[in-house]
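Q: I'm writing up a methods section and want to include an example of the input and output format. Could you take the sequence below and give the corresponding predicted structure tokens, formatted cleanly so I can copy it straight into the document?
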Amino acid sequence: MEDDFRERICICMNWKQWIIIFSASILALTISIEAASPFEVVLCIHENFTQENCTFQVEDIDTQAGKVWLLLQEEQEPSQSIVLGINDSIDFDRLRLMVTGVYAGERADLVCLRINSSNLASLNP
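A: Here is the clean output for your methods example:
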């Protein structure tokens, strides 16, 4: 009778451990999916945005050509100037930056950038 009781306790403990492991796995998967979710930023000329340890600034926008000039700066690295067109992208550290739209505004031209990042918790607009 005592052996039967011990067996039930072991089965119960294994079941609880399995639920804890399953819950932790689901939580970790949810966090990793959220961290990998892309987001978009709309900027005008001379605005900048910082994500993780990368800062990029819009230097110029040509709405007719669908191009944007960006200045990219990573900690301790020299700045890098690049030109991207619509649907062009660049990988920068753990960050992928893609131009999804260039728009002529009444007061200022705008660029829409999609950012895929491995760590959204460090978002610093």
